[in-house]
UniProtKB/TrEMBL annotation:
PANTHER family: SI:CH211-201H21.5 (PTHR46190:SF1), SI:CH211-201H21.5-RELATED (PTHR46190). It comes from the Eukaryota. Belongs to the IUNH family. This is Inosine/uridine-preferring nucleoside hydrolase domain-containing protein.
Amino acid sequence: KIPLLVDVDCGVDDAQALMMALAAPEVEVLGITCCFGNTTIDHVCKNVLRVLQVCNRMEIPVFRGASNSLLGEISAQYSHFGGDGLGDAEDPSSPGLEYLQEEDAVHALIRIINQYEGKINLVALGPLTNLALAVKIDPSLPKKLNKLCIMGGNLEGRGNRSVCAEFNFCLDPEAAYIVTNEFTCPMFIATLEFTRENCLTAEYFKNWVNQDTEKARFMKKITAKLPPRPTFVSYDSYAMAAVIEENIITEYMQCSVSVELHGRYARGMLVLDTDDKWKKEHKAFLMKKCNLDRFKERLWNALL
Ligand code: BDR
Ligand code: CA
């Protein structure tokens, strides 16, 4: 089985990506680490537990991580997915924070990556704060990872959080800088543009959530109050799919990447060295094309 660690800021699309992993028979999710992002760290933790409950997988350990960016810049979280990150569709029977592990997310990442050295895959679906802290404590982590798959950053300087920056990178630019520069393992990135170019239809979404299963009812409930959109972009699910089934991504662009930390408009923007001016050895794989039929099937199975 593919051993997997997932770092999330569990909003609706993180939940979709998690459910995709939990439905994949070839994957073993060893742990889920939580980071602030779509909502507060407490909500993120509760959301992950809620997803695990719906999927009947409460045995998977969940760890609480960073509650703010490295510079502590985020005073109020902002979400595409309601105040609580899961569409403000509360459920009183959801598990409480007492189900969290005592160990924190950063130390759990370090421990588990060391334990599964060479084999372990990490999928990062939120701000990269936990990963940046972990690599500062244990700089040997990157060489111990089989691969790191990130949802974040943008190709053309058109953001969804700020004018120029994508949400996950924008929420903690320093962490994104540290991770893109120091994780010299094979690194795969699903950028904002890539996820949008491979969006699904509103009709797919409707049929997906209207299946007669408990997981579909859950997905329908947590998306009911969200504003209707002409297309369906499950951002985080692309990064997850790329780890579960390698061939789902059919074309990559390879280049060195970094993150803008200053600037009046561009702080948090992904920077691409497409002409190889830096002559850096480490090149990231930016996803370019996807086998959409396979992706749709993986996502479909998430709610069965
Ligand atoms: C990213 O931002 C978050 O809101 C989503 O969960 C996704 O990880 C998309 O830019
Ligand atoms: Ca996310």
